Amino acid sequence: MLFNSYPFILAFLPAVWIGYFWLGRRSNLTPVIWLGLASLAFYAFGSWQFLGLLLGSIGFNYGIGWLLIRARLSPARRRAALIVGVAGDLLVLGIFKYAGFAVENFNALFGTGIALHILLPVGISFYTFTQIAFLVDAYRGQVAAYALPHYALFVTYFPHLIAGPILHHKDMIPQFEREETKHPHAHLILCGLIIFAIGLFKKTCLADGIQPLVAFAFEARSPTFDQAWLGALAYTFQLYFDFSGYSDMAIGISLMFGIFLPVNFNSPYKATSIVEFWRRWHMTLSQFLRDYLYIPLGGNRRGRLLRYVNLIITMLLGGLWHGAAWTFVVWGALHGAYLCINHAFNALVPKMPPVLVRPARAAGFVLTFLAVVVAWVFFRAERIEWALRIIFAMTDPTQVAFGREEIAALVLVSIYAMLVFLAPNTQEIMGYDHRKRAVGVDIAVEKSPLLIYGAAAALAFGILGIQSHSEFIYFRF
To answer: Are 160 and 196 part of one and the same domain?
Structure first.
């Protein structure tokens, strides 16, 4: 079930919302169970064949977590329990997501014809990483004992289940436990509706609106210089508004239930360095990779050379997390190299004199954006050779089409660029801060008719722009 679909907007969401707060008048636990069951129904609507896998994953990880939190095990047995838990999660993820990729490469190397086709369960990467973080924190003694209904809801909570953000138990389970979240709060509901409307407009009008231009680069046999750049930029902006739209809609939906989700997207294309880009793009994934992979590998504690090795390993695995294909490996390797260059530059180049700070930031902004666009070509392309064909076209200004379609595309891409680089993002507009559990503090939302009318218009255009089947790009990861 898609957020940008009529069944979700007109039936599922209102029914779940009404049931949640109606039950909240009678009990503190029953609404949690209701929301957990609704989340399972949401998942089963399009992936019923994998519902057993999701439930099995919850039971397995909750059991391992119970051993780590409650059972009085020796240090060696606690470590063994953690290894079994993490290995079990990674094994399941590996079978469903990477077995086909491994067999494909085995066939290519040895000329065999082994056939293996495994369907990828929707959201498996997100709920697996969420639970791995839970187990590691339980082993470190950083997790309280949680009731099974609260843990199950933490994993299955439908606003995040399909495409993130990657949730952390310390952020979410205490909110599920609080009684005040079971009673409707008019301000949070209104703010949630506005944020949802903005996200819906981003997806159905902006992301889906520019999608046809992506074909200039990625569906052409021999794109010209201008076609390659227009297609690459169109995909860059499509992915931006698609992912940003989903993140806004997830936050808005959750806010209607009185629950604050972490911000996962913070104007990444405004970054002036690749380090800053990764602090703004898919923020919860960046935090997970930092806390549960990069730092355990040694981080920057073992010298500069090993720091760069750890960065490359982290980004290679981050690339593979997005998909089982060599294009994602190259994308991860590129970003690993970008980060190494960025850190090396910061370490070797002396501090800028004040007069050069602004020009340096401007140059960093341009260079960072261009580097990100180049990497997105590999992220989007079906094969590495197809991506290289586009990259070569982007470096050959002698081959230019620049016909009527290209001019129209240039105008549209320029409009999108102005929206991305000049407009405030949703959390800036709404004053959303999940750490402080605050939204609309700096603006009187209820007394801002312009904002409310604008959100209503965005919701109307967003609903009218709904297509019969327009998945979010991150659904496939």
So the answer is: no
Q: Is 153 among the domain residues?
A: yes
- Rounded Cα distance between 31 and 157, Å, is 13
Summarize pLDDT for 187-246 with one digit per residue, the tens: 899 889 989 999 999 999 999 999 999 999 999 889 999 999 999 999 999 999 999 999
- In this structure, what token pair is assigned to residue 194? 């506005």
Residues pairing with 433 in the sheet: 438
- Residues 232-246: pLDDT tens digits? 999 999 999 999 999
Position 476 scores a pLDDT of 66
Q: Are residues 192 and 65 in the same domain?
A: no
How far from 420 is each of 112, 206, 282, 423, CA to CA, in Å?
Answer: 48, 11, 16, 6
Q: Are 262 and 284 in contact (CB under 8 A)?
A: yes
Lowest mean pLDDT among 144-148, 289-293, 370-374: 144-148
CB 89 within 8 A of CB 61: yes
Catalytic residues: 322
What is the secondary structure of 206-228 as a DSSP string? IIHHHGGGGHHHHS-SS--HHHH
Where helices occur in 220-353 by DSSP H, the ranges are 225-256, 274-280, 283-289, 295-297, 304-322, 326-348
Q: What are phi and psi of 191, to 5 degrees?
A: -60, -40
Q: Please give the Cα distance from 149 to 170 (Å, whole number).
A: 16
pTM for the structure as a whole: 0.93
The angle that helices 404-422 and 225-256 make with each other, rounded to 10 degrees, is 40
Average pLDDT, the chain: 91
| End residue of a domain, out of 148, 182, 216 | 182
Longest dimension (CA), the chain: 73
Burial class (CB in 10 A: 0-12, 13-18, 19+), 395: exposed
